[in-house]
């Protein structure tokens, strides 16, 4: 089977840039990826692009050909929408495209412009990733939904707000030196516990910010990399995807995310590795409880054990499995259409030794990226490996 390598990456800073358009943001990321890969733009055979709320935030649908134009390429372009997992799905399809022999060079990425909507507008726009008939009409939004999941977890397994606070503190600490991160400020457990409530038991510091940004990757086949002499030591060796019922009320579990387990099992089997071989992970921590649910569903911890992982130091930079060395969505930011590819960029940089936090995992050769949409009704998991 054809291998898929990460040849180049591009990334805007994540933050509040209401004056910048989505096309402007993606142009910056795409240029960085293409120039970093050292490929001719004429060699790019496809663009797979993730975006969630372009119609709402910018009155702009049909974004894929527009973003191909902004990237300076003439190739078939397809937009993927899977809520906050949009570019994770785009990466999965790009991997399959190269493996199937359809393409040797694919540009894949995503962008989102959100802060121009304001807090209320962005919250409303994000809510359309929930079930309109049975959740949105009843006033559900995602802080409320994840609060329900957090309370269900506490009821079933135990844990408390202080356990969640350690996750927020850890991820803010990881973001301190990450130049791409939206928030590069340390916080304390007391800061988290004393912050205003958002939706009990979650407070302000349990939630990721509203963010603008873009990210892009050039993926190439083994044959193309070898032929063109491209130094691309990090490959995507496994990919998986899972889905669940949209509405929380229809779920078998509130304190578990089975879609992530399905995606992880598929990705592990595809790569021929197990969770015990993963040395570093980037997981979708849109809320602190989401990190707990992720690390359990991915097989890193048994159900009920992930809640205390950060507090015990197991997922910190000095722990047995560092999670979200980038700062995660919590501190790095979450421009939803760009998050999936951003996670992979961070992991590739960590594994290749180029990341500011690479020294935390000097011997890691396998990384995992977990990207989720909605209340984990959509999930992608990718396994990355670095060669000798």
UniProtKB/TrEMBL annotation:
Alphabetized InterPro entries for the sequence: Thiolase (IPR002155), Thiolase-like (IPR016039), Thiolase_C_2 (IPR055140), Thiolase_N (IPR020616)
Top-level taxon of origin: Archaea
Keywords: Isoprene biosynthesis
UniProt domain Thiolase C-terminal: residue ranges: 240-385
Every Thiolase N-terminal domain range: 5-222
Pfam family membership, one: Thiolase_C_1
GO biological process entries: isoprenoid biosynthetic process
The protein's name: Thiolase domain-containing protein
Species this chain originates from: Halalkalicoccus tibetensis
